[in-house]
Amino acid sequence: MVEYDYVTKKRADVRTIKDSQVPAIRFVMRWVTKLNVAVFRASKGRLMNKFIGGYAVCIVTTVGAKSGKIRRIALIHLPHGDNKLLVASQGGMDKSPVWYHNIVAHPKIQIMADGEEKTYIARQVDDEEKATLWPNLLSMYPDFDEYQARTDRNIPVFSCRPEAT
Questions:
Q1: Total domain count for the chain?
Q2: What CATH number does the domain containing 71 carry?
Q3: Strand pairing partners for 109?
Q4: pLDDT tens for each residue of 36-75
């Protein structure tokens, strides 16, 4: 079992995800995300702009790592100065979300937030930078701590800087 100094929750204190639940959770996440993306984009961010709990949403557009097709995902909007942070938590499941692999393969992405879509260059942060960013991430979405405690996977964090124009 892997533990990180900056994670305040402990594995014994968090609810586990049973292997038998994973397919159903992924199915629901996929369809809710498709709906969220479609409504958010069509309304230019006026509708479906918050996750449960009131957390602001952004839409991240990537290029498929294998397919080369445009892919969109609704994620929690995590501003960090002029940059945006993306956390590939997938609720603390044991595998990284598909969009993680897309960004690793094609780090030039678009993020739609606050009614604007801009191009960003994503960079996966190292463990030291992740530990520094962790309190900031938790201030915007406290459940990240539970997600990291739930899995042995080192949940990837990306810092996305606006593309120079």
A1: 1
A2: 2.30.110.10
A3: 120
A4: 889 988 898 888 898 888 899 999 999 999 999 999 999 9
Encoded tokens for 98: 């598909």
108 located within any domain? yes
pTM of the entire predicted model: 0.88
Q: What is the DSSP string of the chain?
A: ----TT--S-GGGS----GGGHHHHHHHHHHHHHHHHHHHHHTTTSSS-B-TTS-BEEEEEEE-TTT--EEEEEEE-EEETTEEEEE--GGG-SS--HHHHHHHH--EEEEEETTEEEEEEEEE--HHHHHHHHHHHHHH-THHHHHHHH-SS---EEEEEEPP-
User: Using CA atoms, how far apart are residues 149 and 93, in angstroms rounded to an integer?
Assistant: 11
Spacing of C-alpha 130 from chain mean position: 14
Interatomic CA distance for residues 12 and 150, integer angstroms: 9
Domain residue limits at 36: 11-162
Position 27 in a domain: yes
Both tokens of 28, joined, read 């629901």
* Residue 1 within a domain: no
Query: Quick one: tokens of 17?
Result: 């995800």
